[in-house]
Amino acid sequence: MWNGDGTVEINGFRVYYTEVECVRRIFERHPETALNLRPKNQLVKNAYMNTLLDLIDIACSAPQELTEEELVDAENTLLDLVGVGFELDWLKKKLEELCVKKNKMETRGEHMRELDRMIVEQRQVLLALEVELKNEENEAVSDSARIGFEDVV
């Protein structure tokens, strides 16, 4: 139902036209989301819906785009929404998966840096061995060379 202020009412929430599809999809896939919502004031409900949409945007982010602080803030915001009656187990699961991916990425990144450091060290060892081999080859050639008459007499 269209309202005069450019919003549409969906499941008791007034949302802007640009958010209609997202909000409809939330309620189609997770109809329990706002069944137990306690606030009745329309402005408060709208603020909570905007917060929920912001959290979903965060959950859609790539792990490397988020800081640990942003993830902690997102988890706290989720707890706030659950505290006022939202049923968000589905979003909690996604945020937890995002945290796990971020931790794996950080661990993997540390491991990759360690492997790179080890490769650099091994290249230096290999280079030193190649220099030593070249010196040995030069000495072997020098030692095996035939000397001239003048060098003997």
TrEMBL record:
<keyword id="KW-0175">Coiled coil</keyword>
<dbReference type="InterPro" id="IPR050804">
    <property type="entry name" value="MCC"/>
</dbReference>
<protein>
    <recommendedName>
        <fullName>MATH domain-containing protein</fullName>
    </recommendedName>
</protein>
<feature type="coiled-coil region">
    <location>
        <begin position="88"/>
        <end position="139"/>
    </location>
</feature>
